[in-house]
């Protein structure tokens, strides 16, 4: 097994670049994931592994990890190297380099009565990760990111999603492309917005449905408001008129799930 003990190693430096720069992730078609559970979920989600990095001072490669070791590069790294690459101290001393997937809308495989969550221009990677966790909890067909502000494989999204990046179908497109896709598949668009909106719980989400949420600062673009089947609002009884986007998504999704009998 190959060993790397220096943080100055050229390969380790390239992995640091992979963590820090979306351009490098795009060029190489790879990204870095830490944690045994996250790697297991990635494998189950159909992601291809390129390299495993293991720090034996902090953990061991699980025998339950379903990987083809014969075709995989496994590198033993020192604690210093691991800490240079890892964001967390509780990921069992294991990291992996994975190959990215195409996130084209055309790749989505939907059920006969899909429930889809759309997020437009979500700015904070942590919010994207939280949305992915919410979508996993509600077992949605897909998450679509319209006009995304962050690379899906941003390490902060990977980390904050706690592996849910790999458990749901994800697609990316412009707002115009996403609206065209939803309409071509006869999916009702419900846009969460303050303007000209009806209270969300009065609507019927039992048909093919896309629930669309935007940023807390600016909300959804006018295109969503004008093209939606219905604009919806979550009644607010406090002083402020907005809530965290992942919380809003959860409220809407679980109303849809309630109507569908969970």
Describe this structure in words.
This protein has 262 residues and is an alpha/beta fold. It is 32% helix and 22% strand. It has 9 helices and 12 strands. It has a 7-stranded parallel β-sheet with strand order 8-7-6-11-9-12-10, with helices on both faces. Strand 6, helix 5 and strand 7 form a beta-alpha-beta unit. Helix 1 crosses helix 2 (22-28) and helix 5 packs parallel to helix 9 (245-259). It starts with a strand and ends with a helix. 40% of the residues are buried. The mean pLDDT is 93.
Defining key terms:
elongated, single chain, 262 residues, 5-stranded mixed beta sheet, alpha/beta, 7-stranded parallel beta sheet
Poorly predicted runs: none
The assembly state of the depicted protein chains is single chain
The run of helices and strands is EHHEHEEHEEHEHEHEEEHEH
- Report helical residue fraction: 25-40%
Summarize the structure.
This protein has 262 residues and is of the alpha/beta class. The protein is built from nine helices and twelve strands. Helix 1 packs across helix 2 (22-28) and helix 5 (125-137) runs parallel beside helix 9.
Secondary structure layout plus pairing:
Elements: E1 2-4, H1 10-20, H2 22-28, E2 30-34, H3 36-44, E3 49-54, E4 73-77, H4 79-85, E5 94-99, E6 115-120, H5 125-137, E7 142-146, H6 155-160, E8 169-173, H7 175-184, E9 188-192, E10 198-199, E11 209-213, H8 222-227, E12 230-233, H9 245-259
Helix pairs in contact: 1-2, 5-9
């Amino acid at each position: 097994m190959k060993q790397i003990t220096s943080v100055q190693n050229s390969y380790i430096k390239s992995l640091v670049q992979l963590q820090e720069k979306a351009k490098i992730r795009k060029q190489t078609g790879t990204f870095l994931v830490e944690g045994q559970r996250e790697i297991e979920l990635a494998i189950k989600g159909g992601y291809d592994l390129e390299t495993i990095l293991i720090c034996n001072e902090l953990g061991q490669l699980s025998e339950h990890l379903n990987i083809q070791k014969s075709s995989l590069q496994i590198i033993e790294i020192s604690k210093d190297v691991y800490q240079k690459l890892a964001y967390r101290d509780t990921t069992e001393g294991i990291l992996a380099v994975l190959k990215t997937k195409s996130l084209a809308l055309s790749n989505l495989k939907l059920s006969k009565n899909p429930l889809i969550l759309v997020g437009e221009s979500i700015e904070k990677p942590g919010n994207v990760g939280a949305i992915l966790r919410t979508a996993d909890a509600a077992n949605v067909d897909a998450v679509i990111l319209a006009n995304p502000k962050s690379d899906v494989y941003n390490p902060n999204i990977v980390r904050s999603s706690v592996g849910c990046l790999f458990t749901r179908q994800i697609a990316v497109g412009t707002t115009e492309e996403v609206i065209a896709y939803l309409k071509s598949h006869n999916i009702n668009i419900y846009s969460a917005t303050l303007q000209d909106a009806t209270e969300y719980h009065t609507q019927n989400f039992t048909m093919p449905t896309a629930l669309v949420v935007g940023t807390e600062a600016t909300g959804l673009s006018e295109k969503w408001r004008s093209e939606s089947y219905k604009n919806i609002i979550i009644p607010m009884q406090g002083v402020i008129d907005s809530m965290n986007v992942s919380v809003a998504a959860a409220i809407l999704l679980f109303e849809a799930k309630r109507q569908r009998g969970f």
